[in-house]
């Protein structure tokens, strides 16, 4: 048994709305072997992992998996449950899991809910090794392996400060995503997006951070601003440190100029020998060291956000309390057993480490690690009160004196930090500094906020919310509208139409299509960009005010959605293309995949569905969102029923695109006035225009703007590679991207209305389609074109060269034995031959694989772009008349 591949899907996906890990596993020698065939295996597994016995599995009740284990289940399923159980052991619990057949016996996809992909990948490996060891009767070092997984989890998990900010953002509905490892996240989308790293925000000044990271700079800036700071200076040697200590007077505090989390800090140094030791300790962190007068009092941390103190905490150094029984080391171990304490910043409190500083503190109290303090005695373990060194915090926000509050706010303002941690030393923060005295010790950029969110004592303060509210004040936009389009045919043109309409309204549109990513009409990424990564690229662009995303099957299956929710989803149609790919075996499988786009629409959003497609009509019944139907048939029964209950539909009637809600009707634009419809002859583009109009009206675009934009849509710039017409000598060439039976039928229906003497097709089908789909495409083309040149994609997608062409040619001959059919594998050569043998006024339709080589040939031949579908005059009499089929599901890309 081995793991072949692992992929992480961070967004909504076809399995569940949560992030998942998908692992492909080859069972090898365990193929079609069941657990019951291995005596003692189930019992051994339960002994090692007792919690597995409570797993529900398909039975839907505790013990369901145990029952399956005893009855007999395959080992892919067992690995799934073992991995899920192990997530509890590293405190990264996951509950959803599913094991799916992956195309052949012994090959399975194990899908599991996943919030920690790096750690879960390791757990999956541990699960496989553990199962194998149990089968082989070997002892497996589970705890050692789990500790490795815990360390991976600690290394990659988000810290509590970042998590608090993300939770606060999500509570307000602000989209959030982790951009890279560590604590780098994006809140919001498009123009309104804000990027943060921990508590460093988009408005944080780089100069202010530099000041805060240099304690000498900080003291100078604060002193100049009239903020009280301890007297002192910097030293570059032990002798200089000693001289500075003599100048300011003992006791002193010694700390590195550049450092954080209390590293290298020693306070209350009251002898010259200790000054030298403290300097050496600080110099390990930074050669430049501050020596300043130690100020007695209590250590406080104030959090200032955009000039306002939002929380304050009293910080106490790490300490234990004697009980007369346990030694200091045992008391530390007991304290570290507190579930709130973890390694580093993984939990609200940090475990206490014993080091030279702890030993020094103990010695000052006449103790060591083996001493047993008397009951009730407080043993201070460190001189610094940082949480990162094991300290604790008590919230005092409500009791801060107004003058102390203003002092902290002045310090943050002086340094220039928008999110600022101010370390204050004062005997009592409830009294005025003028009365009791106070000094600012440090000002911190990227302050940790766990002491405020999870104080050891007092009221938790939701400072993550305060930070989010500062970034996105109430009423301020935080995301751009998302229009998502999917289907079999028509996606690209519909996306382009929606984008064109929105651009007409002044939006800066980010658009992802099969032809690349565009922002404000300019291509920024080439290629097929219909997957989740492309969606994320659009939604991260700082200029984008509206996103229009073509969302294809492959991306949905392999990577899920690149966004959480859309405002409008459009499903153009679903037909039998891509059958046999990615384990899609039927039309129902395709509907299941593409319905994800319809399901992930915001409450209050709209799903636009093609009423001429029965599968989409059926889908409407299970959606809990507003539905807009569109149809080429104004009398469609589905539409009439929808209107009867006050619904909205977009219809083609009497040559017009109409909007109807209930009994009310508004004309939008004449179909023939939309250039891309070829004077109304291209019904599939009329359907695309209906879908685009519906989507934009759902998004609040006025009808007049929709009409204005559609009247201008149809040039090569607007819709490259889709029904683009060229004149080459006395013949015409129509360039399109169709590659399946329905697209051939739709273009064939358009070609049947060509006013010239004859129509020819140059066509091919991708090699990864099932044979019957390829044959169906050939048969469909045979019914619609007078002559056919069969070519073949350069990328045969795993087939032998010429295999797909042979299937297509045979299908044409079978469907129409008298139809002339020629085979030329090279796309450009097929076009040249068709042109050489053409008659004046003939239309040659080329269904291309690669657009640019084809356009290069047309440029070489002096082709001229035709902006209008020609009328009959001057094109000659028709030679052969193909009888078009009547199609209502006739949308094409």
Describe the structure.
It is a single chain. With 893 residues, this protein is an alpha/beta fold. The protein has an eleven-stranded mixed beta sheet, sandwiched between helices. Strands 36-35-34-37-33-32-38 form a seven-stranded mixed beta sheet, sandwiched between helices. A five-stranded antiparallel beta sheet has the order 18-13-12-19-20. A hairpin with a 2-residue loop joins strand 23 (516-519) and strand 24 (522-525).
Architecture blueprint of SSEs:
Blueprint: E1 2-9, E2 20-26, H1 41-48, H2 64-71, H3 75-89, E3 97-101, E4 107-113, H4 117-136, H5 142-156, H6 160-171, E5 176-178, E6 184-187, E7 194-197, H7 206-212, H8 215-224, E8 232-235, H9 238-248, E9 252-256, E10 266-269, H10 272-283, E11 289-293, E12 298-305, E13 308-316, E14 319-321, H11 328-336, E15 341-342, E16 349-350, H12 356-364, E17 378-380, E18 392-395, H13 402-415, E19 419-426, H14 433-436, E20 439-444, H15 450-453, H16 463-471, E21 482-486, H17 491-504, E22 509-513, E23 516-519, E24 522-525, H18 532-540, E25 546-550, H19 553-559, E26 566-571, H20 587-599, E27 601-610, H21 614-620, E28 626-631, H22 637-644, E29 648-653, E30 656-661, E31 664-670, H23 683-698, H24 703-711, E32 724-728, E33 731-736, H25 741-751, E34 759-763, H26 771-782, E35 787-790, H27 803-815, E36 821-823, H28 827-836, E37 843-847, H29 851-860, E38 864-866
Parallel strand pairs: 15-16, 21-25, 21-26, 22-25, 26-27, 27-28, 28-29, 33-37, 34-35, 34-37, 35-36
Antiparallel strand pairs: 1-2, 2-4, 3-4, 5-6, 6-7, 8-11, 9-10, 9-11, 12-13, 12-19, 13-18, 14-17, 19-20, 22-23, 23-24, 29-30, 30-31, 32-33, 32-38
């Amino acid at each position: 048994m081995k793991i072949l591949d692992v992929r992480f899907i961070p967004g909504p996906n076809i399995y569940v709305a949560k992030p998942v890990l998908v692992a492909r596993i080859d069972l090898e020698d365990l193929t079609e072997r069941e657990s019951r065939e291995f005596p003692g295996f189930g019992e051994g597994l339960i002994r090692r992992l007792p919690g597995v016995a409570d797993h529900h599995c398909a039975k839907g009740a505790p013990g369901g998996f145990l029952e399956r284990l005893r009855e007999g289940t395959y080992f892919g399923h067992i690995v799934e449950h073992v991995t899920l159980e192990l997530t509890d052991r590293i405190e990264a619990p996951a509950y959803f899991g599913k094991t799916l057949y992956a195309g052949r016996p012994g090959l399975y996809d194990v899908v599991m809910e996943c919030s920690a992909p790096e750690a879960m990948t390791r757990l999956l490996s541990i699960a496989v090794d553990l199962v194998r060891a149990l089968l082989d009767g070997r002892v497996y070092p589970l705890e050692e392996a789990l500790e490795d997984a815990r360390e991976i989890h600690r290394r990659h998990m988000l810290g509590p400060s970042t998590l608090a900010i993300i939770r606060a953002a999500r509570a307000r509905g602000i989209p959030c995503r982790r951009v890279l490892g560590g604590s780098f996240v994006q809140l919001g989308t498009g123009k309104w997006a804000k990027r943060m790293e921990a508590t460093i925000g988009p408005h944080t000044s780089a100069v202010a951070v530099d000041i805060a990271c240099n304690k000498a700079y900080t003291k100078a800036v604060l002193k100049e601003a009239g903020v009280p700071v301890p007297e002192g200076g910097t030293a570059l040697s032990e002798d200089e440190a000693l001289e500075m200590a003599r100048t300011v007077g003992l006791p002193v505090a010694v700390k590195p100029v550049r450092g954080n989390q209390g590293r290298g800090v020693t306070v209350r140094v009251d002898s010259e020998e200790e000054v030298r030791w403290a300097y050496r300790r600080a110099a390990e962190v930074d050669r430049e060291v501050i020596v300043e007068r130690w100020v007695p009092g209590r250590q406080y941390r104030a959090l200032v956000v955009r000039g306002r103190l939002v929380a304050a905490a009293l910080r106490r150094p790490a300490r234990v309390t004697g009980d007369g029984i346990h030694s200091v080391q045992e008391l530390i171990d007991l304290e570290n057993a507190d579930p709130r304490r973890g390694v580093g910043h993984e939990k609200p409190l940090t475990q206490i480490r014993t080091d030279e500083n702890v030993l020094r503190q103990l010695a000052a109290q006449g103790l060591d690690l083996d001493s047993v303090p008397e009951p009730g005695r407080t043993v201070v373990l460190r001189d610094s009160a940082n949480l990162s060194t094991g300290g604790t915090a008590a919230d005092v926000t409500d009791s801060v004196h107004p003058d102390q509050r203003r002092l902290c706010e002045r310090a943050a303002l002086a340094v220039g930090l928008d999110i600022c941690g101010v370390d204050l030393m004062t005997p009592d923060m409830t009294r005025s500094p003028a009365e009791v005295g106070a000094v600012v010790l440090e000002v911190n950029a990227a302050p940790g906020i766990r002491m405020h969110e999870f104080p050891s004592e007092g009221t938790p303060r939701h400072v993550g919310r305060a930070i989010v509210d500062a970034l996105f004040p109430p009423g301020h936009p935080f995301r751009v509208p998302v229009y998502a389009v999917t289907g079999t045919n028509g996606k690209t043109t519909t996306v382009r139409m929606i984008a064109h309409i929105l651009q007409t309204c002044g939006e800066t549109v980010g658009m992802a299509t099969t032809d690349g990513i565009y922002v404000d009409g300019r291509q920024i990424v080439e290629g097929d960009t219909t997957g989740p990564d492309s969606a994320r690229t659009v939604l991260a662009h700082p200029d984008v005010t509206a996103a229009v995303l073509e969302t294809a099957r492959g991306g949905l299956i392999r990577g899920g959605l690149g966004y959480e929710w859309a405002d409008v989803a459009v499903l153009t149609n679903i037909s039998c293309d891509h059958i046999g790919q990615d384990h899609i075996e039927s039309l129902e499988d395709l509907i299941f995949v593409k319905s994800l786009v319809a399901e992930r629409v915001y409450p209050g959003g709209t799903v636009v569905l093609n009423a001429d497609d029965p599968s989409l009509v059926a889908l409407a019944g299970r959606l809990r969102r507003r539905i807009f139907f569109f149809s080429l048939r104004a009398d469609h029964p589905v539409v009439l029923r929808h209107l009867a209950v006050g619904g909205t539909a977009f219809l083609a009637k009497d040559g017009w695109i109409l909007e109807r809600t209930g009994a009310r009707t508004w004309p939008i634009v004449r179909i023939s006035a939309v250039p891309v419809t070829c004077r109304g002859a291209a019904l599939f583009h009329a359907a695309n225009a209906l879908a685009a109009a519906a989507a934009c009206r759902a998004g609040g675009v006025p009808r007049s703007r929709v009409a204005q934009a559609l009247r201008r849509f149809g040039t090569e710039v607007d819709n490259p590679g889709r029904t683009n017409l060229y004149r080459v000598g006395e013949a015409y060439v129509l360039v399109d991207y169709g590659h399946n039976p329905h697209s051939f039928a739709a273009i064939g229906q358009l070609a049947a209305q060509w006013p010239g003497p004859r129509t020819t097709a140059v066509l091919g089908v991708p090699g990864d389609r099932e044979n019957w789909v390829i044959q169906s495409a050939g048969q469909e083309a045979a019914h619609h074109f007078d002559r056919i040149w069969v070519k073949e994609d350069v990328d045969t997608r795993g087939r032998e060269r010429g295999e797909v062409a042979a299937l297509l040619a045979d299908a044409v001959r079978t469907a129409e034995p008298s139809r002339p059919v020629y085979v030329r594998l090279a796309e450009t050569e097929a076009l040249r031959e068709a042109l050489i043998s053409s008659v004046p006024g003939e239309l040659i339709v080329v269904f291309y694989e690669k657009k640019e080589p084809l356009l290069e040939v047309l440029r070489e031949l002096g082709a001229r772009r035709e902006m209008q579908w020609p009328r009959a005059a001057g094109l000659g009499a028709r030679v052969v008349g193909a009888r078009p089929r009547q199609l209502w599901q006739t949308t094409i890309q």
